[in-house]
Amino acid sequence: MLTTGGGSRGSFHSFTGPTARILGFACESVGVAITTGKELILFVEDDPAVHAAVRRRLLFEGYRVESAQTGDEAVERFNTVRPDLLVLDVTLPGMSGLEVAERIRSVSRTPIFMLTARDSVADRVAGLESGADDYLVKPFAIEELLARIRALLRRVGRNEQASVLRFSDLTMDTSTREVFRGPRSVALTAREFSLLEYFLRNPRQVLTREQIFTSVWGSDHMGESNIIDVNIKSLREKVESMDLPRLIHTVRGVGYSLREGS
Question: Which sequence spans correspond to the domains of the chain?
Answer without folding.
Answer: 2-160, 164-258
